Amino acid sequence: MTDDGAVIELNRDEIVQRIEQGARRRLRMSASELVQAYRSGRLKDPGAVADLLALASLLAESDPLFAPA
Amino acid sequence: MRLPESDALLAEARTLTEAYKSGGQGAARAFRELTALLFRLTILAPEGGVRLFSGPRGHMDFVLGGWRGPDDPLPLTDGRFLRLTVRLCVTPPTEGSRLKVEASSYQYQVDREGIRWIFRYDYLRNPPDPYPSAHVQVCGSLVEDCLPHDTSLERVHFPTARVSLEAVIRLLADQFGTPCHREPELWRPVFAETERAFLEIAHRPLGGPER
């Protein structure tokens, strides 16, 4: 593997799509439900989806995904 | 026994450590390069790699993860995987432009999907839940029947101090038998140096919520 030091910039759609796919596959919930559950402290095992939560941290704070349902 | 490349590797590790500790725009890249070096010397499969990702939040927030993303685990030399997720941010100039780790997660797993995981070390600077900021979880079962009925061992968050990436790689190499590319005589001094530097500045959380 080439040791590429470049920073890969992901756009909103890519990020949300990845969270959506991962959340539905692993927890049977939507991306929005995942981030809401996490932010309210209701997610039972956040570490299990640390990768998805990290992706969410790349979204702007004003992103609609963080808006309460 | 001192290997011919030892001095050069130590110098490279020191340069990268100084670069990430100096903060600023290049800090996250230096942190990535150092992480890649540690893996390259030890347990990363040849097809694996680590990369930095950013997004709409801006160019001061990053996630360090596998080659195709934080949700892409690193293939290891034992055929298993390490899901590496490190959230990094560079503080504003008024706060010194320092590189901070907001969260990290190291999950050793059998399959790429992570359904068959073995253990996971997590750290979260500001957790929204009552679990310890730094903890380890093990996917297994206890010999004794001592947990509440609705709790399995994998849901127990054992508090830990900050656990470095170096410690996790050592654990895999020394105790899980994950093969290393290079001799311990070469990488152990590098790991000692970089781990010491990390622990000197690492945030040390309490073992649980204050309130």
Describe it for me?
The complex is a heterodimer of chains A (69) and B (211). Chain A is mainly alpha-helical. Chain A is built from three helices and one strand, in the order βααα. In chain A, helix 1 packs antiparallel against helix 3. In chain A, 35% of the residues are buried. With 211 residues, chain B is of the alpha+beta class. Chain B has one domain (6-201). In chain B, strands 1, 2, 3, 4, 5, 6, 7 and 8 form an eight-stranded antiparallel β-sheet that branches. In chain B, helix 1 packs antiparallel against helix 2 and helix 1 (6-22) packs parallel to helix 4. At the A-B interface, strand 1, helix 1 and helix 3 of A face helix 2, strand 1, strand 2, strand 4 and strand 5 of B. Strand 1 of chain A pairs parallel with strand 1 of chain B, so a sheet runs across the interface.
Order of H and E elements of chain A = EHHH
Helix content of chain A: 40-55%
* pLDDT averaged over residues of chain A: 91
Uncertain stretches of 5 or more adjacent residues of chain B: none
Query: Per the principal axes of the C-alpha atoms, what is the gross shape of chain A?
Result: globular
Tell how many strands the DSSP assignment of chain A holds.
1
Class computed from helices, strands and strand pairing of chain A: mainly alpha
Strand share of the residues of chain B? 25-35%
Order of helices and strands of chain B: HHEEEEEEEEHH
The count of DSSP E runs of length 2 or more, i.e. the number of strands of chain B, is: 8
Count up the helices of chain A.
3
What percent of residues of chain A are in strands?
Answer: under 5%
Helix content of chain B: 25-40%
- Assembly type of the chains comes to heterodimer
User: What would you call the shape of chain B?
Assistant: globular
